[in-house]
Design brief:
The chain is mainly α. The protein contains eight helices and no strands. α3 packs antiparallel against α4 and α4 crosses α5.
Length: 166
């Protein structure tokens, strides 16, 4: 499986290729799966939180470097899990990471219409308005997910009849 180059900058392509090489050549990396990596995702997230707390208490260059290091470790988890998704889905390495980044960008824009919408001006909107709008959008997204889950768990009458006949 090759690394995908489409839609990614040089730094992203290089780290995706590095991850692909690890999956091909490192005995530890090649044996990991989503479940075996769960503990590392938790550990790295907890270490990031400690580094952020230290930095908030004392914003020194040492604490800043620790935050950067821990962010890298958390990103490694994202990169690793996305590589596993690429493998299981038959995609080139980098496909899922690109999808993650694109989805994040879409979400940021969708959830912040006061900053990105047609009516967004040059002035920063009021914080109360932003929080109210964000809560409204989150509630809409949750309702949409619930509707989708209900459709999946309760097939249409025709489909349900076919399922019952099997």
């Amino acid at each position: 499986m090759e690394a995908s180059a489409s839609g990614q900058g040089p730094a992203t392509r290089q780290v995706v290729e590095t991850m692909a090489t690890l999956r091909r050549r490192c005995p530890w990396s090649s044996r990991q799966d989503h479940r075996s990596l769960e503990k590392y995702a938790r550990e790295e997230t907890e270490e990031l939180i400690v580094a952020l707390e230290d930095y908030a208490d004392s914003p020194s260059t040492t604490h800043r470097a620790a935050v950067v290091d821990e962010l890298g470790d958390v990103f490694y988890q994202v990169l690793f899990h996305s590589a596993l998704l690429d493998e299981s889905g038959g995609h080139e390495y980098g496909h899922s990471l690109g999808t993650i980044i694109d989805g994040l960008e879409e979400k940021l824009i969708r959830r912040h219409p006061l900053a990105f919408g047609d009516d967004a001006g040059d002035e920063m909107p009021d914080l109360d308005d932003v929080e109210r709008e964000y809560r409204r959008i989150k509630a809409e997204e949750k309702a949409e997910r619930n509707d989708e889950n209900n459709v999946e768990s309760h097939p249409s009458g025709e489909q349900q009849s076919e399922d019952e006949q099997r």
